[in-house]
Amino acid sequence: MNKEEKLRIFANALLYPVTSEVHSKGRSDIEVLYAIARGGAKVVQLRDKFSSKRVFYEKALRFREITNEYGMLLIINDYVDIALSVNADGVHLGQDDLPLTAARRIAPDLLIGVSTHNKEEILRAQEEGADYINIGPIFETKTREGHLNFLGIEGLKELSKYARVPFSVMGGIKMRHIPQLIQAGARLIAMVTEITEAEDITGRVRELIGIIKSNLR
Question: Which domain holds residue 198?
Answer without folding.
Answer: 3-216
